[in-house]
Structure to design on (334 residues):
């Protein structure tokens, strides 16, 4: 299928890939009728029988799926993968899911009788905790030029938790991450046609799955960050945040004023206070850390990147506000 257009998802963005198999001259489209040239002595391959879903049952993360979403019906048996074999499904990047607490994924396909060339693949990841799901989505958003607009085109309920691409949708709710991907095997499909079709189908299917997830765990730590100069949807949780030469788990938020950017962070409260004190002393001597403080089990501060530092008085005011929010919440294990 040398002319097949496929959609694959990476870091929450759709990538248009051309299938790279060797060409078969006997199967190439005729210039006049744009249909495959099938030799007279070769019979057409009969269509595969309709998939029998009567015996399909869901378990684990599959319980938020359905056998049909309107006329999009399940077309393959659900497959399940755990942390020990996730690499078999995701060739690259599986270790990030595992680092955030991944337990299990279910994946299956959906087909529509009126659109036989199109397949929608659904993946549901059980990340064990809402923090794990939120953190993994943070990694996707970190790579986007405009995270503010990542959920544009989704409902108000999903806009702040979803990333809508030209052929896929990824969102988090409670301990789950859901990824929907559209593939069109029509040789005449284009990126524009795929994006247009996807925009009519994928968000609606996502809404149904979103509604099937009844729990709605939240990340309270996000609310402690000051809102002034905050870049929308940059609040995140990272297992590999770097403060100077020290790598640690931390909640972060990015800020921008004019052309100056900086990050506020709060370390995850999993280390003893003595270790956090050592972290504070180590990071304070590095060039990209403007200020760093400690409040009980938390180390928090400000880092910057680029040639220009943010105003020190502004950073002091923000850290004072952050410290006040931490004290008021008495945040411990979020």
């Amino acid at each position: 299928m040398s002319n097949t257009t496929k959609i694959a998802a990476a870091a929450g963005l759709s990538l248009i890939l051309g299938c790279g198999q060797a060409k078969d001259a006997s199967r190439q489209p005729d210039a006049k009728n744009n249909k495959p040239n099938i030799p007279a002595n070769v019979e057409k391959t009969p269509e595969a029988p309709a998939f029998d879903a009567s015996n399909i049952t869901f378990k684990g993360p599959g319980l938020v799926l359905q056998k049909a979403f309107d006329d999009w019906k399940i077309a393959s048996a659900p497959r399940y993968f755990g942390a020990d074999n996730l690499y078999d499904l995701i060739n690259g990047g599986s270790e990030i899911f595992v680092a955030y607490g991944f337990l299990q994924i279910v994946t299956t396909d959906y087909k529509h009788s009126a659109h036989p060339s199109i397949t929608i693949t659904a993946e549901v990841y059980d990340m064990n905790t809402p923090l794990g799901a939120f953190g993994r989505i943070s990694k996707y958003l970190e790579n986007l030029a405009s995270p503010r607009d990542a959920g544009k085109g989704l409902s108000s309920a999903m806009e702040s938790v979803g990333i809508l691409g030209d052929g896929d949708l990824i969102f988090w709710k409670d301990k789950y991450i859901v990824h929907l991907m559209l593939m069109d095997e029509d040789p005449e499909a284009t990126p524009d046609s795929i994006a247009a079709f996807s925009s009519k189908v994928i968000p609606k299917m996502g809404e149904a799955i979103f509604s099937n997830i009844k729990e709605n765990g939240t990340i309270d730590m996000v609310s402690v960050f000051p809102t002034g100069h905050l870049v929308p949807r940059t609040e995140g949780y990272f297992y590999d945040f770097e403060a100077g030469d020290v790598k640690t788990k931390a909640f972060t938020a990015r800020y921008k004023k004019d052309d100056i950017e900086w990050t506020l962070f709060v370390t995850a409260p999993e280390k003893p206070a003595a270790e956090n004190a050592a972290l504070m002393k180590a990071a304070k001597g590095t060039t990209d850390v403007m200020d760093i403080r400690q409040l009980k089990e938390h180390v928090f501060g400000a880092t910057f990147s680029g040639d220009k530092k943010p105003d020190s008085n502004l950073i002091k005011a923000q850290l004072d506000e952050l410290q006040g929010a931490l004290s008021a919440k008495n945040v411990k294990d979020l």
